[in-house]
Amino acid sequence: MKYETVIGLEVHVQINTKTKIFCSCSTEFGKPPNANTCPICLGMPGVLPVLNKQFLESSMKACLATNCTIAPMNRFARKNYFYPDLPKGYQISQFEEPLGVNGHINIYLDGTKKRIGLTRIHMEEDAGKLIHGENLGSPENSYVDFNRTGVPLCEVVSEPDLRSAEEARAYLGELKAILEYTEVSDCNMEEGSLRCDANISIRPEGQKELGTRTELKNLNSFKFIQKAIEYEVDRQTRVLEQGDKVIQETRLYDSDRGETFSMRSKEEAHDYRYFPDPDLVPVVVDESWVAEIQKTIPELPEKKRSRFVTEFGIPEYDAGVLTSSRELADYFEKCTTLFSKPKIISNWIMGDLLRELNKSNKEIKDCPVSPEALINLLKLIDEGVISGNTAKEVFEDMYHTQKDPAAIVEEKGLKQITDDSAIDAMVEEVLQANLNSVEEFKGGKEKVLGFLVGQVMKASKGKANPGAVNKLLKEKMASM
């Protein structure tokens, strides 16, 4: 039997604020355990939470950027459950009255556009972190770090519109780009600023009813999210094909073994006993406030992609890569103000620049080659000072030394040979050494020309002008 995969994602996003959601404790990452705490975020008796306005406005921006309707009144609720890292015994979240509803994000996969619905975006506080004793030299003990307790989160809940692990990854990439463009979150997955839970089920093709779902918790890298979903789909398929039933449960992904394993039975909403938080008044958002926030939203990735295609004449694929982050898009646009050949710029950024950044594990914001330096290199090619192949050598040197490309060319003696008489001598030498190839070319094997050009370039140590080499080779062979 063939099965259809159905996926919905719940993405927890840490909002960019200096202080926590209901108190003035710092949200700074990496502080000593329990350094960023106070009686409010520790849930001491008699304390009262006060909502962080910047968090609310950033959450509204996230809603508008993902096409959600902002509720004119929304309310915080208490989600009751006991975990050791939740000091109050309940989490302040939103349930029946979330901030944003009925949004959508468009994803593009293999040239096809698909709309993914968003059920809701709601505000909530984070819980703490358990540190187990094997990491502290005491295997029999576990410890709790409450620094993350009360850190402001938005939870973005998608409709079950995703049909494959590839679509899930594309959706997360688009959501991450939107959040970064709007500066709502830094989306640093290593520090826990972006975490994903995936609800996964399968059903026979053509069936309308959804299958029994499992939830994968706390996935924190695009690679692991895709692999975990693929494994879980295969696992559920095996279960059904063996005549068994999929159990509704929460599972974790073991990245070392590439497998999911059971964590606990899945709770339903009624298990949490939600009720309105009596310490927090409803949040009233009027139209003028929404309009103010709307003005702060920049050009978003989808619109920028479309503009790059029409304005710069680059392929849709190039535009998709270049707009994957706001910093990368800004880098490309800065380059286009300095050099009027966008496709050449695009090729170099997507090729040599991104390759070196990946090798050194750096983001574009930390790139040692400025737009001005890259364009200086491209102008050297354009002016015939160096060849494209030589430019690749110069670029690698630029990346690691931050030297000016012209200075590197001068130091290493890499200037292109454009003197026809010098090239003529090398061409003559290559032709006399490869008379059989000359006869093959004259007999109609035009591919031989590439071999001969390569021999001349080798003889010139890559410095001969390829255009001049081609021209002279053809002229001399025609007269032989």
Would you summarize the structure shown here?
By secondary structure, this protein is α+β, with helices and mostly antiparallel strands. It is built from 15 helices and 16 strands. The chain has helices at residues 53-65, 165-181, 222-241, 287-295, 301-312, 316-322, 326-336, 342-359, 371-382, 388-401, 405-412, 420-433, 435-442, 448-459, 466-478; strands spanning 3-14, 69-70, 73-74, 77-80, 90-93, 100-109, 112-125, 129-132, 142-145, 152-158, 194-204, 214-219, 249-254, 259-265, 275-276, 283-284.
| Mean pLDDT level | 91
What's the total number of strands? 16
Largest sheet: 9 strands, mixed
Structural class: alpha+beta
**Measured distance between first and last alpha carbons:** 69 Å
Proportion in helices? 25-40%
| Lateral arrangement of strands in the main beta sheet | 2-6-7-10-1-11-12-13-14
> What's the number of helices?
15
Quaternary structure type: single chain
Question: Into which percentage range does the β-strand content fall?
Answer: 15-25%
Domains, number? 3
Low-confidence regions: none
**C-alpha-based Rg, rounded:** 29 Å
Shape: elongated
